[in-house]
Amino acid sequence: MNRKDYFAILRTDLNNDPRTDRLIEELNEHLDDHESMAALTGTSRETTEAVLGQSTIIANAHRTARRTANPTMIMLEAIGFGVAGTPIFLMTFIAMFTQLLGTLNALGSGSWNAYPALPESLAWVFAIGQSLIGYGLLCLGASIIFHLFTLRSVVTDHEQAQLQRARQWTIVGFPIAFSFLVSVGIVSPQALTAFDPATVIGFMLSIAIFLLGVLLALRIIRASIAAPSYSRFGKSILWYREKLYPKLSTIIGVYCTVSILVTHKLFLTLASLDRFNTVVDTHPVLALFIAAPRFAIELGMFFIHWWMSSAALHILHLNVTATYILIFGTVIFVSIVTPIMSAYRRYTLVHRLSIPWVAVISVVYFGGIAALAPLRESHITWHVPHNDIGETLERQELGPMYAVVKYFNRNEGWYANYYAYRFGDDLVVTMNSRTMRIGINDIQNPSITDIGDAERSHDSMLHDAPPANVSCDGVEFAYDGTNVYLGERHELTYPCHTLAVNGVTVAEIEDAQYAGMTMTADEKYAFLLLSTGIYDPTNGYLVELPPKE
Amino acid sequence: MSLNKELLKGAIEAVVLQCLADDGEAYGYELLQRIASQSNNVFAFQEGTLYPLLYRMEDRKYVTSIRKTVSGSKERRYYKITPAGKTFLKNRRTEFGTLFSALKTSLHFANV
To answer: Do A53 and B76 touch (CB under 8 A)?
Structure first.
């Protein structure tokens, strides 16, 4: 083998390692020196391979030499990944929380067993099953993310595999533990106060399932990355690496592809049909099963989409939060994408592993989004002055997270359950656990005061008010002295397309499935609750009512 | 005499660093010649694998490298031991000293 062929093979073996050129240059110089020496001493010329050794051995030595680990650097990286990963987990938990609440709302009024058409046991089975589907995807997402996170620190570090097991677990587990605890700390108080005890138990059960999934994922990751020494993990790990892991990759890829393409499309098709409402009414179990994939798909999409497109899209649409998103996106890119790309490159360099389904999913996902977008939107034509109080409250609640969260709940409301009570001439609005008094003297810019104590507003519920003439699509509804509800099962059976008060149209609402209203004592203002679908949370609007004729 | 590869692996870094510490900076081929000469060809290994070893030690800041022109137009990359490399070498020498002392006793070298 001549020198040129030798280095061509070596270059292939090195798989475009960054130091390939330098290595080949020095090996060339080494051969020059060797030949010069041979000429001087009169010894016979040797082949390139005889002098330098087999190219595969050099390439392997080169790769092995790069697998060095500095424990301090690894720990710093782990901390960095933990901090950087916190927003992801926080968003994940918010998504879980949102979806769970959405499910509960769909089942009934915030309780597993409130849905009248479902046997309690079936509701539980379904709800837990739905959670498993969703959290399975979460675990998948967490696996992928943390697989990539830990690659650089652990996978490519030959010496790392020889570290003590406790230290390995620390390095792998710290990012996920840090992110998880921060997220739980932020989200749990809301969960505890928003739900009844049975629901909290369900929520905690779901989190436990999620944790188990994460632990399993970590275990699998750790087993995967210990490739050079996996024999010490025993035959089961060997079986996993050689037999199961490739199959799992295929299965996951197929699952994601089919889910995104087929199931989501199926759901959207069904949801777009007016008859879907009938399905919900007459075949609630079927309707829930139809809705379940959406739950899972949205969480899956949440992960991918949040990573890849939220910053850019929000910069285009939301000026208030554009700066935040820009900074956030930059931080994400610098602290996560770059290490991931680097880790992936090194991972493929060392293990010659390609993950074609990642590329396939990316293409299919964005292709699918392009094909399916835009999703259904609600259009409201207002005939009276109004203020989207729901948005204002949500912005207060979420702060800088609003833009990102809202994007992933686009075309839907936020997770809030709104309840409104009169308080003198003002309104007291409870959004989940938070109670706020809204000053409504200025409809364009109402002041909002955080009361923080829901009990204080209860007395106002007893405040009497003269009956108002409220109609939905021409049908008048009774006023119970406190609130106006448009039908007992309003969200399912009484879509309200034209809402009128005192004979004057307040709003024409496309696709409205629910409407509820709370008025001030003087009937000048009302807090109007609108939802566009059974699985869509409620939006709250402050409206100025037309005067009595 | 050729040594067991695993035995060689643990010592080769120290040998290279010791060579650089004793004789100053050197380029790859020169370094190999020195090592072979000083060790009576005991530390003879596939020459191409020297460079990945040097890269690893460079990553660890045990050595630095710089390209220099030699013999007119020829360019070579010279490697030089750093203070960190000297510290590592000192620790390795202590470790090997302890090991050899123990081996001497355990394997009864004195009785051979």
So the answer is: no
